[in-house]
Design brief:
Elements lengths: L12 H9 L4 H8 L10 H24 L17 H9 L4 H20 L6 H17 L4 H18 L6
Helix pairs in contact: 3-4, 3-5, 4-5, 5-6
């Protein structure tokens, strides 16, 4: 069952895990459980993806901190820089709305999973990539422009206040 970045998730990641349980060895199933979009020691392509994701998030933090005259080091996580994430971060912060930026980042995340899973058919890495894509689709389904803008504004104001800057 192929999935695309704009569609609704055909099943939840939890349903996928339950379905997969009877077809996988215990080792592969445990590895699949650990295959998430976050975490430091994830197996297989997930570990590579997570290094890329941390680099992307750090690049986003650096750009946002610079705009607010904050020290980015205070907010960055320890991670090696990964080629290409700085350009993605620059392009996303230049978008005219937080929703457009999130949709762009969603596409980039999807493309990274595709890149890491290229040539991996009928093995555990393919199954991991499928779960990761389901997790991305679940996250995307929660995007709501109005609520997102309110949450963004609230977070932005909290950062300003923490920095001693009065929000407008």
């Amino acid at each position: 069952m192929l999935i695309e970045p704009e569609q609704r998730a055909p099943m939840s990641s939890e349903s996928m895990l339950a379905f997969s349980r009877s077809f996988l060895s215990t080792r592969d199933y445990v590895g699949l459980l650990e295959s998430t979009l976050e975490g430091n020691e994830a197996p297989g392509i997930c570990g590579l993806y997570n290094k890329w994701e941390r680099s992307l998030r750090n690049d986003l933090v650096k750009l946002r901190a610079k705009r607010l005259n904050l020290d980015a080091d205070e907010y960055c996580r320890e991670a090696a820089s990964v080629y290409g994430t700085a350009q993605i971060a620059v392009e996303s912060v230049m978008m005219d709305s937080p929703l457009k930026a999130e949709l762009y980042l969603h596409q980039c995340r999807w493309a990274k999973i595709d890149e890491l899973a290229a040539g991996r058919l009928f093995d555990i890495e393919f199954i991991r990539s499928y779960r990761m894509k389901l997790l991305l689709l679940e996250r995307r389904s929660k995007f709501n422009e109005e609520l997102g803008f309110k949450a963004y504004r609230s977070l932005y104001n909290r950062v300003l206040l923490a920095s001693g800057i009065e929000p407008r």
